[in-house]
Specification:
Blueprint (H helix, E strand, L loop, with lengths): L5 E5 L3 H14 L11 E5 L6 H7 L5 H14 L3 E3 L9 H7 L7 H11 L4 E5 L2 H6 L1 H7 L4 E3 L3 H15 L4 H16 L4 E4 L17 E3 H13 L4
Parallel strand pairs: 1-2, 1-3, 4-5, 4-6, 6-7
Length: about 230
């Protein structure tokens, strides 16, 4: 079976896009260059802020998301993946605009959590992702409860996310780890790194419960799709 070409609708942010690219490489069973997958990346950081659009009436990112997706389709991508959790609020509009599949990060992550037997998930994500219920829906379909930070801690998570985007990793990592520990104290048996900036500062093993990296889950789903194993 021919291998499919992966299209990464990226730039949200650039480092998170590079992180997904690397995780696809590391998830691919390959022993030489020619056994790796072909990947097309459109790194478009000019896509308007997704949380601002969802919650605060900011500029609609849909046209830029759709155009970037179409660019990748025209370039030869067989399916798309999006290294931005909050952008999945617009998943349906992107999927309607292209003729190739657009994989869903929340579904991939929820499948991995169910496979690991996690019943109560602590969610570390942007305000847009949390308040739009993207993970709540995917996890509820698999019988998994969701625990979210309180208002004060959620603000620290948001500050950490934008801190990573601006290159501030030390303080951001400290605040995110503290937020994860609070979710565990509230009963979470696993923590979702549910913004693509968060896996850059919080890894499995950093806290007492498993950390599920949504970027890595999407990377593994993409490899399976590309190899015809999905």
């Amino acid at each position: 079976m021919p291998r499919k070409i992966i299209g990464i609708l990226g730039g949200m942010g650039p480092e998170a896009t590079a992180d997904l690219f690397l995780k696809i490489i590391k998830s691919t069973p390959a022993k030489k260059d020619q056994e790796h997958l072909r990947i097309l990346i459109d790194n478009n950081p000019q896509i308007p802020d997704r949380t601002a659009a969802i919650l605060h009436g900011g500029k609609d990112p849909t046209p830029a998301l759709v155009e970037t997706g179409k660019n990748l389709e025209r370039a030869g991508a067989d399916f798309l993946i999006i290294p931005c959790n909050t952008a999945h609020y617009f998943h349906g509009k992107i999927q309607d605009a292209v003729t190739i599949p657009v994989l869903h990060m929340m579904s991939a992550t929820a499948d991995e959590m169910k496979a690991r037997g996690i019943k109560r998930a602590g969610l570390l994500a942007s305000d847009g992702t949390v308040q739009s219920g993207l993970y709540h829906q995917a996890l509820a379909q698999r019988g998994i409860e969701v625990v979210v930070p309180n208002k004060e801690t959620q603000q620290k998570v948001m500050d950490a996310i934008y801190g990573v985007k601006s290159g501030e990793f030390v303080a951001s990592a400290r605040d995110v780890k503290q937020a994860a520990e609070e979710l565990i104290e509230a009963g979470a048996t696993g923590v979702i790194a549910g913004c693509t900036e968060i896996p850059l500062i919080l890894a499995d093993g950093d806290v007492s419960m498993p950390v599920i990296d949504a970027t890595a889950a999407l990377a593994r789903a993409a490899v399976q799709e590309a190899l015809g194993q999905a």
